[in-house]
Amino acid sequence: MAHKIKISFILANLLHVFIIYVVGVVLIQAVKNTIEWQVEKAWGNSSVLWSDIWQSVIDFFGGNQFMLFAAGTYGFTALVFWSYNSIYLFMDMTERPKFLRKYKIQEGKNSPLTFDQLKKLLSVILSSQPHAMAVTIAFFPLQQLRGVPYNVEELPSVPQLALDITLTALLQGGMFYYTHRLLHHPYFYKRYHKVHHEWTAPVSLTAVYAHPFESVISNYIPLVLASVIIGCHLVSTWLWLVVAVIQTANDHSGYHFPFVLSAEFHDYHHLKFNQCYGVFGILDHIHGTDLQFQEAVQSTRHRVFYSATPISKTIPDRMNRSRASKKD
Ligand SMILES: [Zn+2]
Ligand SMILES: [Zn+2]
To answer: How many whole angstroms from 168 Cα to the centroid of ligand 1?
Structure first.
């Protein structure tokens, strides 16, 4: 009798396990299928949307490759640059919205930005635009030679796009670091790079406030050359240029906002001249060109923070001083 009960008990348990297993498998499969279907639906729709947008861009230039690669790239970058920087320009000139003022890195410097300063900025920036156009045009034969894809049929997938932009950013970061170091050689500094360093407390437009020689060798050429070497589709190059424009404007903005990548590193370069030459800080670390920065309060603040309190208040100057004196 006891034996029979034991068997029925085991069978009942096995049945329970089986039911739980079947229900579990069905549920997991259902959730998996739903997610896959949603992703496929979203990506399928958006890929059609992106194809349509890109086709209309190609059509806008009448299918003319030169116009698309040269005029298109220059015009698109200029549009992104002026649209994005106009937000910072408004903030710097009007000192509004007031609640964002507290996120200034060098408090009170170039604040508010005057019309005279704006005129000076525009005259230098506009004077290097013919050089920017010339570089974009000069790259066209190289892009043809490299067989840079631009067709709708060859549009990159999202992972490919992410890989293209990451590799291009790393390569451009390297080119920028070494050309920037070269510009700090006394021969080049006094002739060219001194212009960019007129701003010890930068504002976003100073990202391209430079002598045309510097703009060409350190900004324009690395930007396009890196994407050509990586072999990016033209769409990847355009999106990379959006990333680069936003990143360099933020780096020069003079603000350190919550949830946004820190601008402390390049701001420190403008403040001290001989520190923090690169974009990511990796090469500065390797070459020891960030040693003074590592000891400074700005280095402690150089991170993304997630509170409404400015990081300059969370990590005030005196805290760093007391930390430094403890080290001594
Ligand atoms: Zn700069
Ligand atoms: Zn410099």
So the answer is: 20
User: How many angstroms is it from 241 CA to the middle of ligand 2?
Assistant: 21
pLDDT bracket for residue 301 (50, 70, 90): very high
Long-range contacts (CB closer than 8 Å, 24 or more residues apart) made by 218-222 = 218/176, 218/179, 218/180, 218/183, 219/176, 220/131, 220/132, 220/135, 220/136, 221/135, 221/175, 222/172, 222/175, 222/176, 222/179
Ligand nearest to the CA of 199: 1
pLDDT tens digit sequence for 240-260: 999 999 999 999 999 999 999
The number of C-alpha atoms within 13 Å of 162 and in the hemisphere containing its C-beta is: 3
CA of 25 to the centre of ligand 1 (A): 57
pLDDT at position 19 over 80 = no
Report the predicted TM-score, pTM, of the whole model to 2 decimal places: 0.83
pLDDT tens, position by position, 216-245:
999 999 999 999 999 999 999 999 999 999
